[in-house]
Fold these 3 entries.
Entry 1:
Amino acid sequence: MLELTDVVAGYGSTTIVQGISLGVRRGECSVLVGPNGHGKTTLLRAISGLIKVRSGSIAFDGSDITRERAEKLVERGLIHMPQGDLVFPDMTVEENLVLGAFTKSAAKNAKQRMEEVYDIFPRLLERRTQRARTLSGGERRMLAIGRGLMGDGKLIMIDEPSLGLAPVIVDEVYSQVRRIIDTGMTVLLVEENVTRAQSLADSIHLVENGEIVRSADEAGLLDEQALRETYLGMTE
């Protein structure tokens, strides 16, 4: 579904992503783990067209999208759910969801997709007429993910859904992300917490200093020594 080859990207004169190659198989969840500031978010931005790829190539669903504009990628079915609670605070829950179906293809299926979102996130159905600013942090995170699902995408990229949430709320959000994966959606997930990532991943990739330093098709097989070195700077 998604194939990256030697992708290099960054900001201004600073290179962050240092030649990453990565494949995401259709219907599976691939997870990028690693400490903050090592290039995971930058990589998602490069894939979704928010920043330019300096070199290398990106293919999505069989087509080269390396130079494609962000809005065109959404129309193709590539959905990026960024960090944080980027919702429209003065709009209701349902108005926020409707805005997620802004492309022509998504608008045709908006009613069905909204029912599916409410099924995954029943809390949003309860809050459907409330303004987003009145929601809790966990509810806003659910709304941000739900709005992304309204795009009727082929692949969704979720950037740290647990960021800044209390552990009990993280459990709830992750159980709902699990439900999304179980529908057969192709998912590329960024997460700092390896334990959380292991509960979801079909494949897992450890990112350090803008490079993938370890990968495993089974999350539990990711090398523990590599994790200690990357997260804690510990070497034997």
Entry 2:
Amino acid sequence: MSPSRPTARLARDRRGVTPVVGVALMLSLTVLLAAVVGGYAMSAAADPAQPTPTVARSTGSFEAGPSGGCGDNTVQIRHEGGERIAPEDIEVVVRLPDADAQARLVDLPVSGTALGPSAVEDPDNVVYDYCVGGAVANGGRAWTAGRVIEFQLNAGGGTVDPGDPIEVSVVHEPSGGIVASVELTARDT
């Protein structure tokens, strides 16, 4: 037997191991990456222990007009049936797609009928701060069938014109789920 023969067999055996080790490393990295991404996604998701309440139906209305008082430019979202929702569990998101503007009403209910600085996130000046009503005003009452959530848009700066679309979503804050979503069209008074 020549000395080169065992070396040739050893070299051939090592080449067979290299692809197996490579596959095992790739599989390990894939599993590790899936675990990290899955863990992040689960931590970023809403609390699964808090189910989203069911609102069977909701309706909305909007009347355009000059700002002032709570009569004109008022959005009302009416709970038409389903589970009751505590006002402190409600956030309202309003979007004006034509103006590429959005606002959020948070930290509800308010103690009176005006939104304080902590109760509105409104970089686009969409919401009129001094008029909120219904279930989220005056200390709040549960949003149940027949009750409304009411707020006024700031149309004084030309934000809303007749015919403009308005999208409103009522969000259950603990679960992050949308309990009501209404698309409205601004119209003249």
Entry 3:
Amino acid sequence: MKKIRYIIFFVYTMSFASCNQENFVTVAVEFKNQDEVLVKFWLDDKILRNNTIKQGRLDAVIKVPNNRLFYISFHNPKPDRFIKHVPIYNNPTLRLFTDDQNNSSFTIKANSMKDLYDMDKFLVVTSSKNQIDYSRYQSLLKKDRENNQAKFNALSKKQDNASSAKNDSLYTLYTDSLRFQEQLNKTSHNKVTRGFIANNPNSYVSMYLLSERLDLKNNLALYQLLYNKADRKYRKSWYGLYFAKRAEQLEKLKEKYIKKLEVNAFDVSGLSFNYGKYANSKLIVFDIWATWCVPCMEDMPAALKLAKELEGKSVSYVFLSYDFNDKYWKQQSQKLGQINSYYLSGKTRKFLDEELVVTTIPRYMILNNKGEVLVLDAPSPSSPGLKKLIESML
């Protein structure tokens, strides 16, 4: 038995070593209007080397692992500003992603160190395929933030118009929408990240993003599905193995952290929600929405279509409303033709907020017929990811 364990350990360490090969990369930094900046190269928590930008130029050659992120931090010896005579230093850090080619290069071009805080103000010219991939991911995040801010500004303008017109009901509606749009601005990067991984399974960047998921515990099935879509060489990469190790540990502990969601709600006829109604369903999809939530209503046609497609597949699609006006919810729910539609009580909302940290909507969750949460934050029905995830869990 000891021999078998030794062989397994040997194979694992050999796999890990094979994905930790190193190569030399060249890094150049060009600042037009700044000099004497200290530069530190990092890998994880280890400083690889220190350099100084002199006369607006730095050229360095460093040895780093293949297909890994390393960091460059910039330190100006002169304070950026003073607050009450206290010097304030702004020290930006850039992430660069190596590939498996020897002598790959990175050239960072900017007017000064301050430009490194804004993606539009500096340029990274590189031969690293992974860096190009990672820059594309960062651009998607930036575009998402801009889109969310545009929606927030549009809702804010509508709120102002409602206030000027002294329309209290519309003002309240837009106030609620603004509050949740503001929360969405803080969390929608999760949706962008999952979308990138799903659309780019064979990518070392996707393996890195999987390895960093903070919500892995509550969405293990979703991330395992995304991981299994990748080819073997990506799953056996440094980040791929790290993700697999985290997932294996969580799988063993799954029963200890699964939460049961007690739903206190009533339908349009006034009948209380009961899991017994869905005893014949292996899975239950909860669509948490509100009539005033713009993203919810944008996804509603896809949600209604998916709910119909899932009929007869041991899956029930249930709408749970976060509305504050049950009469308006009932009117809109019937108008949309929702089946299995419920209005949530304050007690359940409090549990969702405090215990499951559901701070934004729309939220799509997958549970079993006992009410145990299997996936806390599933993809939206407007993407193919939700249906694929459900089918993989049946």
